[in-house]
Amino acid sequence: MKAGAIGPRWALVTAVLLLIAMPVSPGVHAATQSGTCFSDSSTSGLLSGRTIIVDPGHGGSDPGAVNTATDPDLVEKTLNLEISTILKDLLVADGARVCLTRTADETLSNADRYTFANAEGGDALVSIHLNSVSNADVDYTMTMWGKRSKDLALAQAVLTKLVSGLATFPDGEDSPIDSGRVAQFASGVLLKSNMPAIIVEAVFMSNTQEASYLADSTQGRETQIAQAVRDGLVAFFQQQGGSDGGGGKGNGKGGGKP
Ligand SMILES: [Zn+2]
């Protein structure tokens, strides 16, 4: 019976070791298959004819920021996917073809993300993130660009809409956001994608007020973020398209804008 006393423990240890060992071989680079594109051929609108890549930041083994002061913990990868899914629906309703780099909790490398974006021929790429810092009072909105000539106009167009769209919470409370920042960031996702590409650090999920709204998606903060990014994309394409509105570069037929 001595053996019996330690037997279950060894069985447990073996099972744990197997669980640790198994995910290493499959999985890690199955990634470009995870991307999925969405469109609605019965819908036309301001973004008809555009392909937009929406990239939910982090995922799988990379949680991104975690706010452990909330109950339950807020995890960035999960919020990024929620916001990206709402954004996808808004953009599809505007007539766009929208490609999500991931639709589930999956690990993606930067190469997976830009390879997918380039293969799908995106007209713009938006990578969705939430910011975090140790001081729980800090909150502002930010967009980041990689190559000035390719990305900066998109970063500025989206930032303008984030600042105005996030200044109040959905219930009308003043939010801590009263300004925005635009910054350069040498991310492979931005530098190696062939289209205007930005990272959105929408709000600080480490901020106490933001966290309390983000913790309950029915309060609508995620929707506000998605709506602001959508508005920024529309403004960007309107700038790019000039007076015909929908053509953009290289599409002489116009994008189907009424
Ligand atoms: Zn992030």
From TrEMBL:
<feature type="compositionally biased region" description="Gly residues">
    <location>
        <begin position="242"/>
        <end position="258"/>
    </location>
</feature>
<feature type="region of interest" description="Disordered">
    <location>
        <begin position="239"/>
        <end position="258"/>
    </location>
</feature>
<dbReference type="Pfam" id="PF01520">
    <property type="entry name" value="Amidase_3"/>
</dbReference>
<keyword id="KW-0732">Signal</keyword>
<dbReference type="GO" id="GO:0030288">
    <property type="term" value="C:outer membrane-bounded periplasmic space"/>
</dbReference>
<dbReference type="InterPro" id="IPR050695">
    <property type="entry name" value="N-acetylmuramoyl_amidase_3"/>
</dbReference>
<dbReference type="GO" id="GO:0008745">
    <property type="term" value="F:N-acetylmuramoyl-L-alanine amidase activity"/>
</dbReference>
<protein>
    <recommendedName>
        <fullName>N-acetylmuramoyl-L-alanine amidase</fullName>
        <ecNumber>3.5.1.28</ecNumber>
    </recommendedName>
</protein>
<keyword id="KW-0378">Hydrolase</keyword>
<dbReference type="GO" id="GO:0009253">
    <property type="term" value="P:peptidoglycan catabolic process"/>
</dbReference>
<dbReference type="InterPro" id="IPR002508">
    <property type="entry name" value="MurNAc-LAA_cat"/>
</dbReference>
<feature type="domain" description="MurNAc-LAA">
    <location>
        <begin position="114"/>
        <end position="234"/>
    </location>
</feature>
<feature type="signal peptide">
    <location>
        <begin position="1"/>
        <end position="30"/>
    </location>
</feature>
